[in-house]
Amino acid sequence: MKCEECQKNLLDHLRGSLPDELDKAVELHIADCDECAAELAELREAWQALGTIPEEEPSPELSARFYAMLEEAKAEEAEVLRYGARVQRASWEKPGGFEAWLMGWWPGRPAFQFGAALVLLAVGLGIGLALRADDGRDAEIVMMQAELRSMRQVLTLALVNQTATADRLAAVNSIRNDREAAQPAIGALVLTLKSDPNVNVRLAAVDALSGFLNQRRVREEMNNALVTQTSPMVQVSLIEALSGAEDEQLLRTLQSIAQDEHADPVVREHARMRIEKRL
Amino acid sequence: MRDLPDDDLMVAVRDGDLDKLAMIFERYNKRLYGFFLKQTGDPHTSEDLVQDVFHRILRYRHTYREGGKFMTWIFTIARSALLTHQRKRRHAKDEVQIDEFVVSRGPLPGADLEKREESTLIRRALLRLSEDKREALVLSRFENMSYEEIAKVAGCAVGTIKARVHRAIKDLSREYRELQNEM
C-alpha cells in the first residue's frame, strides 16, 4: 500500500469501519511508515478529543415551548375535523331524513356514482320537461327541483370524500363547473383546500372557490389557508385568486408572509410584489 | 407503544395522530439540540432551531413517505433549518465570531480541569471549521451516520461526503494544535 492510499483510509481505520483486509493493510503500512503513523496519531488525538465534548441538555423551556406548539396544532386539527363533520352532518347525516334514505341507495364505486348522477339529472330534466306544460302543478315542480338540488349536493360531497386522487380531482372539477351544486359544497371545498394531501386537488379547490369570492366567509377561509398551506404553488395560486377580489384582509396576510422567515422564498417574493402593487 | 419505530410514529403523525409527535420529540430533541449546539456554539439559538425543526415537521407532515429512514429525514429538516439560520446570520451586519462563544451553560459536572480545557479547545476548533465540513464531521462522529446517510441528508454524492469528512478531521486536528500552542 502507498502512502496516499493509506492516508485516504486513516479516518475509517480510526472509526473501525474498514473491511478486515484493508484494515490490516493499513496497519502493516503504518508499522513501516513514520509519516503515516504521525498523521494517524494527529487524527486520533483530534478524534478522541471530540469525545470529550459532553452531551449537554436543553433547558426545560424547550419542552414547554414544544408542547404549547403541539397543543395549538392539535386544536387547529380538531377545528378542521369539526368543520368537516359539520359540513357532512348538515348535508346528509340527519337521522331519518330524505338524504339518509338516499344514502342507503348510494353506490360505492365512483364510476357508478357518476352514472347514477347522470341518470338522476336525465330523470330530473325529463320530469321537468313533462311538467312544463302543466301550470297547475307548480308546487310539485318546486319540490322536484329541491330534491334534485339535494341529490346533487349529496353527489358532490360524496365525491369529495373519495380516497383516490383522480376521483377527488374529478369531484372538485365537477363542482367548479356547476355553480348551483357548488354553493352547498363550499364547506367541502374549504376542507379539501385545507387538508387534501394532493397539491393538484388543492389547486383545483382554489380554482373552484374562486367563483365565490363575493362571500366574506370564503375569502376568510382562503386567507387562512394562505398562511397554513405547505405548497408554494397553492399559496401563489391563493394570492392570485384573492388579489382579484379586492379583499381587505389580504394585505395583512401578505405582510405577515413577507415577514415570515420560514415562508418559501418564492411565496415571500410574490407577497412582496403584491403588496407593492397595492400600496 | 414505547417501542414503536420512528417511521410508524411519523406515519401516524402524518395521518392526523399529532400526539405521536410528542414521542418523536422525546426521542430526538436532545440529539437535535446537541447537533445544533456543535454547529452554532449557542444554546439559545440551538433551542430555537430544535423548535423550528418540529414546527417544520408539523407543517410538512403530509410530505412524509413511509418506508424511508426517519433519522435521515429529520436531519435533512434540521440541516435545512440550520442553513436558513446561517444565511440569515450572514446577512445580519452584527455577525459574531462564534468561536468566542461560551458554548457551555456552566461548569461541566464531574470533569477535571484538564478534561475541561481539552473539551473547550476542541469545541473552539470545531467552530473554526467551515460550515459544510463541521456539519459532515458532526453527523459522522456524533450521530454515527454512514457516508451514505450523510450524503442523503446533505443532498450530495457519497464520494464528496467522504472527502469532506476526511478534510474536516485534518483541518480540525490543525486548528486544535494551533489552539493548544496559543495556550
What descriptive keywords fit this protein?
heterodimer, A: 279 residues, mainly alpha, 77% helix, elongated, B: 183 residues, Rna Polymerase Sigma Factor, Chain: A, Arc Repressor Mutant, subunit A
End-to-end distance of chain B = 51 Å
Estimate the mean pLDDT confidence of chain B: 86
Total DSSP E strands of chain B: 0
CATH topology type of the largest domain in chain B = Rna Polymerase Sigma Factor, Chain: A
Number of helices of chain B: 8
Gap between N and C termini of chain A: 71 Å
Strand content of chain A: under 5%
Strand and helix order of chain A: HHHHHHHHHHHHHHHH
Number of helices of chain A: 16
The coarse silhouette of chain B is globular
Which CATH C-level class of the largest domain in chain B is it? Answer: Mainly Alpha
CATH architecture of the largest domain in chain B: Orthogonal Bundle
* Beta-strand content estimate of chain B: under 5%
Oligomeric state of this protein: heterodimer
Please give the radius of gyration of chain B in angstroms: 18 Å
Could you say which structural class the secondary elements and strand pairing of chain A correspond to? mainly alpha
How would you sum up this structure, described in words?
The complex is a heterodimer of chains A (279) and B (183). With 279 residues, chain A is mainly α. Chain A has a domain at 3-50. Chain A is built from 16 helices and no strands. Chain A has helices at 3-8, 10-15, 20-32, 34-50, 60-92, 98-104, 110-132, 138-160, 165-176, 179-182, 186-195, 199-209, 216-228, 232-243, 250-259, 265-278. Chain B is mainly alpha-helical and 183 residues long. Chain B folds into two domains: 1-103, Orthogonal Bundle (Rna Polymerase Sigma Factor, Chain: A), CATH 1.10.1740; 110-183, Winged helix-like DNA-binding domain superfamily/Winged helix DNA-binding domain (Arc Repressor Mutant, subunit A, Orthogonal Bundle), CATH 1.10.10.10. Chain B is built from eight helices and no strands. In chain B, helix 5 crosses helix 8 (158-182), helix 6 packs across helix 8 and helix 7 packs across helix 8. Mean pLDDT of chain B is 86; it is low at 99-103. Chains A and B meet through helix 4 and helix 5 of A and helix 2, helix 3, helix 5 and helix 8 of B.
